Amino acid sequence: MIKAKKSLGQNFLIDDKVLKQIVNCLEIKNKNVLEIGPGTGNLTKYILNKKPKKMTVIEKDNDLVDNLKDKFNENLNIINNDVLNIDESSLFNEKVIVFGNLPYNISTEILSKWIINLKNDFWFENLVLMFQKEVADRIIASNNNSSYGRLSILANWKLIIKKICDIRPNSFSPKPKIDSSLLIFTPRKDYYKLKNPKNLEKITRIFFNNRRKMIKKPFNQIFNGDLRILEKLKIDLNLRPQNLNTETYYKLTEEYENLRS
Ligand code: SAM
């Protein structure tokens, strides 16, 4: 009997209806698949039944890795490591579909790592990822919504994001205290070509440093009150950071990069 480790965010999905819904949200047959945090292999089993071309999993917990080796033997390529240490883009020669019922304590860290390291040539076809509902709400929020912020702006920059469903605590064992949501991410063809994603991180960090205050101070801090940029982007300095849409933040980052080149 496997005892779930809270420190590794282990809440195993045990609801067949949800497991089916996850593997049915896109075509898996003959595709390369990567699963992050396979745990006891509940989702892994459903994915393998759909006959992927090649399947790799990354699991940090040594005990669970032993268990996975017994269960799936040669059908599965198992990497026993911390996903934060892996360069996923180097694992496959072709694009992959990524699945993950992510450990909640590092889910935004994993996503941010992928977004920041994303080169113009995407290494994945789709990401199908589960987050705690509150985090998923922040990822998909639009401007003027209280959940809107840096994560929404960063995640939507190169990715189209859709919610598939919400999932209740009793679909897991042990039961988490919170609801979860399943999101699907698809690469955008027409995203703003920024020189360095770290600049988008920087601009949004400065603007959202104080989300209740008007954007006058952060704007002046970065652009020294440049009226030309205000007029070009039609920005009203009396607005608050959550009133500017994602596109405005990408354009502000472009302007910032132009000033520095
Ligand atoms: N996919 C399984 C399921 O749905 O039943 C388990 C999901 S559980 C929420 C998260 C899994 O990620 C656990 O198996 C945990 O051991 C693993 N994990 C936690 N931190 C990790 C890390 N840094 N790198 C790789 N795996 C990790």
Alpha carbon gyration radius: 20 Å
Instruction: Give the CATH architecture of the largest domain.
Output: 3-Layer(aba) Sandwich
How many domains in all?
2
Low-pLDDT parts are none
Fold and architecture overview:
This protein is α/β, with parallel strands linked by helices. It contains ten helices and nine strands. Helix 1 (16-23) packs across helix 2 (42-49) and helix 4 packs across helix 6. The chain is elongated, with a radius of gyration of 20 Å. The model has no long low-confidence stretch (mean pLDDT 95).
Give the SSE map.
Blueprint: E1 12-13, H1 16-23, E2 32-36, H2 42-49, E3 54-59, H3 62-72, E4 77-80, E5 96-101, H4 107-116, E6 124-132, H5 133-140, H6 150-158, E7 159-167, E8 172-173, E9 180-187, H7 197-207, H8 216-223, H9 227-233, H10 246-260
Parallel strand pairs: 2-3, 2-5, 3-4, 5-6
Antiparallel strand pairs: 1-8, 6-9, 7-9
The structure holds S-adenosylmethionine.
Summarize the structure.
The protein is α/β, with parallel strands linked by helices and 261 residues long. The protein has helices at residues 16-23, 42-49, 62-72, 107-116, 133-140, 150-158, 197-207, 216-223, 227-233, 246-260, and strands at residues 12-13, 32-36, 54-59, 77-80, 96-101, 124-132, 159-167, 172-173, 180-187. S-adenosylmethionine is lined by residues 8-13, 37-40, 42-43, 58-61, 64, 82-84, 101, 103, 106.
